[in-house]
Amino acid sequence: MALLRVEKVEKYFKHRKEIVHALDDVNLFVDPGTTTALVGESGCGKTTLAKIILGFYRLNSGTIYFEDKNITGIRRNQKVVRENIQIVFQNPFLSFDPRYTVFAALYEALRVFTRLKKSKSKEVIAERLKDVGLNERYFFQYPHQLSGGELQRVSLARALINRPKLIVLDEPTSSLDVSTTVKIIELLDKLQQESSLSYLFISHNLKLVKKISDYVFVMYYGKIVEYGAKEAIYNNPSHPYTKILIKAAQQKVKEIKEGVRSEGACVYLGHCPYKLKQCLQPPSFRKIGENHFVACYCF
What SS3 state is found at 216? Predict the structure, then answer.
């Protein structure tokens, strides 16, 4: 049984007289104790999906299940979402109130779930900081006094405050340098091994995704175009867009052309070098290998 299931989710925004499709018939899952990666270029809808899962946005259609329980909507089952799903944002410096110390920020998060006295809360917060490789000397430091890596560790500690089952990681290392990124990825792996955590890892960095993921979903302009086990995606990338992403990660492509969405047809038609007549209709997913599916008429 999947821990999280996203089924046929659609989200659009009205901009003046136009309707912008942010997500179109998106299906995705995260299994217990594993990492599912959602990859694609900036602006393709990855963060929008994360916000819908957490109830920040209302979807237009579709259903979201957590442990087979329908959690669709902003208010419905909000308690289930808060207790079991947490998020770590892209920029840690924008994730904290600069007026709050580390202790105050984590204490505020802890109060959402429990009414512990401050003395007992100190023990819990110290334990969470220890989980992410920090100690009590960080209690009374402010965000501007910490490095990006230290503050992202505090973000993780806050996400872990109530021991959730799923953490959404929205580009958690994009604002960090290479050495700090390696340390954060190692920390995420350690936490997953120790606590059987599940991750939804959102990124455009396919080298990073290869290190941390078990399953990969590739998104282009709000539509999933290929998904499967990590080995299948990296050893046999099949959709033209997936191939370009992987070549770019291997530095074989200097630049990816700016995205364009083809309405009423295959979403990638505008850039695809393998155009067929049937591509004027959106393709269905086809199984091309074990744990490997692609939405393309070339298969």
Answer: strand
